[in-house]
Design a protein that fits this description.
alpha/beta, 40% helix
Length: 462
């Protein structure tokens, strides 16, 4: 072979190697032989079956009904105390608060009381890997949008993407805070350049953007003379704007490229339950609830569930038909503070009412919503089971630290036969050390804590 032919052959060989190394297998992306159905995990804070079931019967939650018709559903045992950052981190890690290190909304002192100057927990405080870390390390492509305690966005392998959340239900108070909006929230996305792609959606979601009109067309305006409901409405709008924006972003990113694991969180049902329960169920309270307000506000909680169903439908339109869909809530909700007309919360969950769990898609048993012998929705697992179940569906070993087991009983015999359970693996080996919480911008922690207090939680107070 001539020298020129040898050089040509070498050049072609180099080109083939170069092209191969741009492929996902060389860039750390998802494994090319992964051919299982993608997963959509939708976290909906505070969903309550006693609200959902009547709405299903009335045909007001058609997308929930469709999932149940093609899958199964039941109650999910939660943990007490029912602080959202604690529970959603347990859902994402499969371990309890002592193990994952997220103990409250913000840092605790030596007596396990909130510090007066404690910072809200952030992702770097977590002591164990979450499902997005594990799945990414196992060469599964991940998309995570707005999960509790996911800020700062953690670097993930391959083409995985994260849109982080610093403040969950009150994230909008951070994102559109004067002085932050102009410069953007640092470390909001992984990869970092993705923040430019989601900027138009953030603009739309701003306080004066088109989302404002969408809110008012659904919930209407509260008369200015109703001072107390008007005060509650202000933060309720904030939760709506944040969630609506994140649903848009998740839909856009899934339409652009469906990941193996796609997950998104919304907090609107929880805020609605805290704020509007007294008007939905006035007879449960030991004080008179103004009749004209009941007529105007009594459907607000149910409307929030309708919105959650609508948003679920929008997500389902973006995913392939063979997607496995899981809907999870961290706890339930019921009437509370029934003798205190001045209480911010008229719906609460301190006693740990069970959350909601639904699973639908290929390989899932079509048993519908499960009930026990007394007609109550049946408990089918706990918050510890979500992470192991997600990893099991992804054909990834669960972590040896996880305190639950995958809900394989929700799957058909054929699926279980074709997918033998994998031995557990220590995914914490080599995981980065936990450090103190970070503050994205000056004053963000104060905004976070003040906003959480507006929902009715006491943080750093005696």
């Amino acid at each position: 072979m001539s020298r020129s032919n040898i050089l040509t052959q070498l050049a072609l060989t180099f080109a083939v190697i170069l092209l191969a190394c741009v492929a996902p297998s060389c860039s750390g992306g998802p494994s090319s032989d992964y051919d299982e159905p993608p997963i959509l995990l939708v976290g909906m804070d505070g969903l309550e079956w006693s609200v959902i079931e009547p709405l299903l019967a009335q045909g007001r939650m058609p997308h929930f009904a469709k999932l149940l018709a093609n899958g199964t559903g039941g109650r999910l045992r939660t943990l007490v105390p029912t602080f959202s950052p604690v529970l959603w981190t347990t859902i994402a890690t499969g371990v309890g608060p002592k193990e994952h290190g997220i103990l409250h909304f913000a840092e605790l002192d030596a007596q396990n009381r909130p510090k007066a100057d404690g910072l809200p927990y952030t992702s770097n405080t977590r002591k164990v890997p979450a499902i997005w870390n594990i799945a990414s390390d196992a060469n599964r492509d991940v998309l995570s949008v707005a999960w509790w305690v996911s800020w700062p966005a953690e670097p993930l392998a391959g083409d995985s993407r994260v849109v982080a959340s610093y403040a969950a239900q009150v994230q909008a108070n951070i994102l559109w805070k004067p002085g932050v909006w102009e410069n953007g929230l640092p470390e909001l996305t992984w990869p970092p350049h993705m923040s430019e792609a989601i900027a138009p959606r953030l603009t739309e979601g701003g306080p004066q953007g088109p989302v404002r009109g969408e809110f008012e067309s659904k919930f209407g305006k509260i008369p200015s003379q109703w001072k107390w409901p008007l005060q509650l409405d202000r933060l309720y709008r904030t939760a709506f704007h944040g969630d609506r924006t994140h649903i848009h972003i998740a839909g856009d990113l899934m339409a652009e490229r469906m990941a193996d694991l796609n997950m998104v969180y919304i907090g609107l049902p929880d805020v609605a339950g805290h704020y509007w329960w007294r008007w939905r169920e006035p007879k449960a309270f030991g004080y008179p609830v103004q009749g004209d307000q009941v007529a105007r506000l009594g459907d607000r909680l149910d409307l929030a569930y309708e919105v959650a169903d609508q948003w679920l439908g929008e997500l389902l339109e973006k995913v392939p038909s063979e997607t496995i869909v899981m809907v999870v809530s961290d706890h339930g909700m019921h009437a509370a503070n029934v003798s205190d007309p001045k209480a911010i919360q008229s719906g609460a969950h301190e006693d740990g009412p069970d959350g909601v769990f639904m699973l639908s898609g290929p390989g899932v048993k079509k048993t519908g919503l499960l009930h026990d012998a007394n007609g109550a929705v049946q408990r089918i697992g706990s918050v510890y089971a979500v992470a192991p179940t997600i990893l099991d569906l992804l054909a990834v070993p669960q972590s040896t630290q996880m305190q639950g087991k995958p809900l394989r009983g929700m799957m058909t015999d054929a699926w279980n036969l074709a997918h033998p359970r994998l031995p557990a693996k220590n995914w914490s080996d080599g995981f980065r050390p936990a450090t103190r919480p970070k503050e994205p911008v000056e004053g963000a922690s104060d905004t976070f804590i003040d906003s959480i207090r507006e929902i009715g939680y006491a943080i750093g107070e005696d």
